[in-house]
Design brief:
By secondary structure, the chain is α/β, with parallel strands linked by helices. It has 2 domains: about 170 residues, 3-Layer(aba) Sandwich (Rossmann fold); about 30 residues. The protein is about 40% helix and about 20% strand. The protein is built from 11 helices and 10 strands. The strands form 2 sheets. A 6-stranded mixed sheet has the order 6-7-8-3-9-10, with helices on both faces. Strands 2-1-4-5 form a 4-stranded antiparallel sheet, covered by helices on one side. α3 packs parallel to α5 and α4 crosses α5. The N and C termini lie far apart (about 50 Å). The relative contact order is 0.15. The structure holds adenosine-5'-triphosphate and magnesium ion.
């Protein structure tokens, strides 16, 4: 599995973007990386897929430091893929199908397999209905789905989602949540970076808190969000279910349905 060992990264002219980062993806099945703008989330993801190379420290894949020659990176990207924050960075082709097929063709899969996987993944993200449209006519949310479909078709071991719900309407946010849950059930490891605390709280089972390039805390969602000061220190807000717990004396629920069931049960007595 993917891990880092004292990873430090400095952009050429900038200050240090990541300092001594130790993360290990075997700690959870859906991992959250949370932090405010500029805390280093995207930089960390770029290091994890080998696009950026640590200034100090290492990225480990199955306990071996990753290598940066072309062939090794190509192998790594079959196993570890990323859905970028901005879908325009991910989409290269003007047709939806062609775009979702791009990475598979690039990796040398035969056309039958490409067709099978691409149709399956376009369907699973609800993108079949606009698969004949030119990409430049699609909305941001539709492009995001196409980008996800292209990544799903790779069937990799680890999928990194950088801000998967940024700029999406509530219905699309829920759709992305469902897609992520389904991916995780199919045994791929998912890592999500976000400052949407409700999303992270409900989806993730292990969380790292990034603050100015450092990990200031890690643990289960319950541990992270009930610890005083950590979330405010990192400049973030508490998920609404945590606020209900802290301010109304209710137990800490993981989903709104659990809260409603509890409340309805209370009313009955
Ligand atoms: N190409 C670059 N060159 C120099 N500095 C950069 C570059 N990209 C990012 N940085 C700096 O590195 C730090 C971390 O940025 P990064 O994009 O990783 O943060 P982030 O947590 O993903 O933020 P956001 O929530 O806005 O996406 C910031 O201080 C940023 O200014
Ligand atoms: Mg970012």
């Amino acid at each position: 599995m993917l891990a880092t060992n004292e990873l430090t990264f400095q952009y050429d002219e900038g200050s240090i973007a990541l300092k001594n980062i130790d993360i290990d993806l075997k700690k959870g099945s859906i991992i959250g990386i949370i932090g405010v703008n500029g805390s280093g989330k995207s930089t960390l993801f770029m290091n994890l897929i080998g696009v950026l190379r640590p200034t100090k420290g290492t990225v480990l894949y199955h306990n071996e430091p990753i290598k940066y020659d072309k062939k090794s990176l190509r192998e790594l990207r079959k196993k570890v893929s990323i859905v970028f924050q901005d879908p325009d960075k991910q989409i290269f082709y003007s047709k939806v199908y062609e775009d979702a097929a791009f990475a598979l063709r690039n990796l040398g899969f035969d056309e039958d397999e490409v067709k099978k996987r691409v149709n399956q993944s376009l369907e699973s993200v609800g993108a079949l209905e606009f698969s004949n449209k030119p990409v430049h006519f699609l909305s941001h949310g539709q492009k995001k789905r196409v980008a996800i479909a292209g990544v799903l078709a790779l069937q990799s071991e680890v999928i990194l989602f950088d801000e998967p719900t940024a700029g999406l309407d509530p219905k699309s946010v829920r759709a992305i949540e469902e897609i992520i849950k389904a991916i995780s059930l199919e045994k791929a490891k998912v890592v999500i970076s976000s400052h949407d605390m409700d999303l992270i709280y409900q989806l993730c089972d292990y969380i790292y808190v990034l603050d100015k390039g450092c990990i200031i805390c890690e643990g289960s969602a319950e541990q992270i969000f009930t610890k005083d000061n950590i979330i405010t220190k990192a400049g973030l807000t508490e998920p609404w279910l945590v606020k209900v717990h802290k301010n109304m004396g209710f137990p800490l629920f993981k989903s709104e349905e659990e809260l409603y069931d509890y409340y309805n049960e209370l009313k009955r007595h």
